[in-house]
């Protein structure tokens, strides 16, 4: 089996940079660099902020220092990185709009946990779409993982509660619960997600659990608006980006971290259950720099 890396996933982004640049240089004019970064879907204001203190001819080291600044939280020494809570069972609430790759991401997280020897249970909590319930059940069958589900239209909070209680009874170490991505209006969606989160908290006796937001990487920086809406509904713990291998908008990751101040936990790198990698900020920055600079 060939394991994909973040470098492979960003190939369309770095290829697009190479086409714009032509021959790589050790010094890049500031205006050319601006064009490259904007083309990679880094937000314009962020590009301006990155470049403002740099000289007219920019070398790799100067840009590297400037990029690393945006992976910091409020404190210079505090990186915006993902650390899962040390709790058992680890309950993960998966949030995101329909079409972002939410169900496939659930399967990937489940496969990863099972591959690590953990007992996993899934909750088909998107009860507003019959197809979503069936997709989770099909993945459960394929991976040999139990799925708690009900009929379309059933209360999703009840599914979340039943999934956690079933997981606790069966000794599950990881419980992954799907949620609805779209309801009749935003207020309904917000109320539903807040209710599910409260029910999870109650079922776990106030122990911590995770809220992952799944974003479609092909949407680039426009996914940030979507993320902000969900962040207003719930305290999101981390982001999972899907379909990044299908786009040249890899620079949007930098914009997401800068705008949202949330860590990227995982990157989806394909359609198979094993196509999920942990996000690594060093690999990400070095891949971008390798696409720009010679040597």
TrEMBL record:
It comes from the Bacteria. The gene is ftsY. It is a peripheral membrane protein. Keywords: Cell membrane, Cytoplasm, GTP-binding, Hydrolase, Membrane, Nucleotide-binding, Receptor. It is found in: Cell membrane; Cytoplasm. Belongs to the GTP-binding SRP family. FtsY subfamily. GTP binds at residues 96-103, 178-182, 242-245. CDD domains: FtsY (cd17874). Its EC number is 3.6.5.4. Part of the signal recognition particle protein translocation system, which is composed of SRP and FtsY. The lineage of its organism: Bacteria, Pseudomonadati, Campylobacterota, Epsilonproteobacteria, Campylobacterales. Involved in targeting and insertion of nascent membrane proteins into the cytoplasmic membrane. Acts as a receptor for the complex formed by the signal recognition particle (SRP) and the ribosome-nascent chain (RNC). One of its GO terms (cellular component) is cytoplasm. Signal peptide: none annotated. The keyword Cytoplasm applies. SMART domains: SRP54 (SM00962). Residues 263-276 form the SRP54-type proteins GTP-binding domain. One of its GO terms (molecular function) is GTPase activity. Pfam families: SRP54. This is Signal recognition particle receptor FtsY. The keyword Transferase does not apply.
């Amino acid at each position: 089996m060939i394991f994909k890396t973040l470098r492979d996933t960003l190939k369309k982004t770095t290829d697009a940079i190479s086409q714009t640049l032509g021959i790589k240089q050790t010094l890049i004019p500031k205006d050319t660099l601006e064009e490259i970064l904007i083309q990679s879907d880094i937000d314009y204001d962020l590009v301006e902020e990155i470049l403002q203190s740099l000289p007219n001819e920019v070398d790799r080291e100067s840009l590297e220092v400037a990029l690393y600044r945006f992976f910091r939280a409020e404190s210079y020494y505090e990186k915006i990185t993902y650390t899962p809570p040390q709790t058992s069972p680890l309950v993960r609430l998966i949030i995101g709009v329909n079409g972002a790759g939410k169900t496939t991401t659930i399967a990937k997280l489940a496969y990863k946990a099972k591959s690590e020897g953990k007992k996993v249970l899934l909750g088909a909590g998107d009860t507003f779409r019959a197809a979503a319930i069936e997709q989770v059940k099909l993945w459960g069958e394929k991976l040999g993982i139990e799925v708690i589900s009900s009929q379309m239209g059933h209360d999703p909070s009840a599914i979340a509660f039943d999934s956690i209680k079933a997981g606790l009874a069966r000794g599950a170490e990881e419980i992954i619960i799907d949620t609805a991505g779209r309801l009749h209006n935003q207020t309904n969606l917000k109320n539903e997600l807040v209710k599910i989160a409260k029910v999870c908290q109650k079922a776990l006796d106030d122990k911590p659990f995770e809220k992952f937001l799944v974003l479609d990487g092909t949407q680039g920086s426009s996914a940030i608006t979507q993320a902000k809406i969900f962040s207003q509904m719930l305290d999101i713990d981390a982001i999972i980006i899907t379909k990044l291998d299908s786009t040249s908008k890899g620079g949007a990751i930098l914009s997401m971290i800068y705008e949202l101040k949330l860590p990227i936990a995982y990157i989806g790198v394909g359609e198979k259950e094993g196509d999920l990698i942990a996000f690594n900020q060093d690999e990400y920055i070095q891949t971008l720099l390798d696409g720009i600079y010679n040597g």
